[in-house]
């Protein structure tokens, strides 16, 4: 295996619980061993990457040789694609509160734009180094970054929820949960509602339906502005539909409709996204004919519709068309969704297509090949 590209692929591996435990201890030996396991590298190749001999790497990994020089640690962090903060190294700008906050706000804003534009993998690469920097500052007793850290953790969880396959979505929920923990401690109602609604959505995707409904109901109750309430209600409707909770689903959809006139249009909440949520929920709660009827009244996506929502909507339309018996139209919708899902690295949406295309063998085979390619990318 050749020298790995430290800045290629999706660097989600460093966000897993095991990796986070290793990084929290700031243990260079453990970090090197983990990196080698991750990239399937022998000590010789890691030594070549870092510019050290194989025997030197061996001594560092066993703890018989320590590296404490800031310059050497910075070099190792750069070669491994890690922020220097994981070794406790701070930048000059870290001492300037305003600079740290401004930098963090900028990263969060750009990461959100990237995610909404269908570039979630790039957002992951920006968010987790920011979190490492903020956590290092918080560990040194600077509580001024906690609000920003909560939002960054939530943002990373949401972004991981885009790029990870279903079997790994618990990692996304763990990160949003970490954001909730800080928000609850800070006792800021809008921040708490924001964290809860995103955590609830990631719990839904991870299959924890009861917990999802509980968090999303609390998020709705904590929300005071029409925009915040609309964001909570649409996610609550989606979770209720998935869980088969018809009464909660109907109430949430009805409230969502009433908010269309007062809440602003966003990538999450619009007539287009509410229609998709209602369509999927009707089908999931056994009201196929109502879903078929609703499909005939599909609104245009609009400028605010994100690539992910377009993919989701196409899959949902395909599912309803399969139930209606229109396999040709269903296949067109699902193949369109597969193209978008691969382009924007949305493996769990491909998995939805696989589940929904049992009566469409050609589509199912295409989806399986697409998923295999995305898995290879995720493992890179």
Please characterize this protein's 3D structure.
This protein has helices spanning 17-25, 28-39, 43-50, 54-62, 70-80, 97-116, 120-139, 146-163, 169-186, 189-205, 209-222, 226-243, 246-259, 271-284, 288-295, 307-324, 327-343, 347-356, 361-379. It is an all-alpha fold and 380 residues long. Among the domains are: 11-88, 434 Repressor (Amino-terminal Domain), CATH 1.10.260.40; 90-189, no CATH class; 317-380. It is globular. The two termini are 12 Å apart. 47% of the residues are buried. Residues 1-9 have low confidence and may be disordered.
Draw up the topology in text:
Elements: H1 17-25, H2 28-39, H3 43-50, H4 54-62, H5 70-80, H6 97-116, H7 120-139, H8 146-163, H9 169-186, H10 189-205, H11 209-222, H12 226-243, H13 246-259, H14 271-284, H15 288-295, H16 307-324, H17 327-343, H18 347-356, H19 361-379
Helix pairs in contact: 2-4, 3-4, 6-7, 6-8, 7-8, 8-9, 8-10, 9-10, 10-11, 10-12, 11-12, 12-13, 12-14, 13-14, 14-15, 14-16, 15-16, 16-17, 16-18, 17-18, 17-19, 18-19
